[in-house]
């Protein structure tokens, strides 16, 4: 029988259980007593936070990471994002990936008119004296390395905070940073 979990990956943690390089890093296994063989489906970089699905079922990982499953992110960006920038995000932008230029697939994007109701991040973003910020929702079906961050930078609005809020039909909901809940099955 397989085990499946939803986790709010906090800022500052790697989306993995083992890290063999010399620097000390915070790993997922420090957050909960997961069964042996548990793996993260997809990743969030160390500076990103939000919804992560974990499972002992390797086949499920392939299903969730497919281009058929949407992943939605809320990005707090530097400056007041423009309609033009949002349209560029939706139509695909050129980013660097593995040393080459890559044009992202079209996606769904829109400006959030209110600050989303998210838990405070452990590390402060910055103060208001450095200028305004705004929030944008970006829903992609692909997941290149640091893709959403590269996309917002490509349109002139670098990401300050990035939170994954949805994977398919599964939403972050009321989970708090570091909280893991076991679920019966994964239906995306």
From TrEMBL:
Entry keyword set: Isomerase
InterPro entries according to UniProt: PsdUridine_s_RsuA/RluB/E/F_cat, PsdUridine_synth_cat_dom_sf, PsdUridine_synth_RsuA/RluA, PsdUridine_synth_RsuA/RluB/E/F, PsdUridine_synth_RsuA/RluB_CS, RsuA_PseudoU_synthase, TruA/RsuA/RluB/E/F_N
Domain Pseudouridine synthase RsuA/RluA-like: 3-154
Presence of the UniProt keyword Isomerase in the record: yes
Xref: SUPFAM superfamilies: Pseudouridine synthase (SSF55120)
E.C. designation(s): 5.4.99.-
Highest taxon in the source lineage: Bacteria
NCBIfam families assigned to the protein according to its UniProt record, in alphabetical order: pseudouridine synthase
Protein name according to UniProt: Pseudouridine synthase
Source organism phylogeny: Bacteria, Pseudomonadati, Bacteroidota, Flavobacteriia, Flavobacteriales
């Amino acid at each position: 029988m397989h085990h499946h979990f939803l986790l709010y990956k906090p800022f500052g943690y790697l989306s993995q259980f083992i890290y063999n390089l010399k620097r000390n890093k915070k790993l997922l296994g420090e957050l909960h007593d997961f069964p042996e063989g548990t793996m993260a489906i997809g990743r969030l970089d160390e500076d990103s936070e939000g919804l992560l699905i974990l499972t002992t079922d390797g086949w499920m990982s392939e299903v969730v990471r497919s281009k058929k499953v949407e992943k939605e992110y809320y990005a707090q960006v530097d400056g007041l994002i423009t309609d033009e920038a949002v349209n560029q995000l939706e139509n695909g932008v050129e980013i660097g990936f593995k040393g080459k230029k890559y044009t992202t697939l079209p996606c769904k994007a829109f400006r959030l008119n209110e600050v989303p109701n998210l838990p405070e991040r452990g590390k402060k973003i910055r103060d208001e004296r450095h200028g305004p910020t705004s929030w944008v929702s970006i829903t992609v079906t692909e997941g290149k390395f640091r893709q959403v961050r590269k996309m917002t930078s490509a349109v002139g609005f670098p990401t300050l905070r990035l939170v994954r809020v949805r994977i398919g039909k599964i939403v972050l909901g009321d989970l708090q940073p570091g909280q893991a809940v076991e679920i019966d099955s994964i239906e995306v």
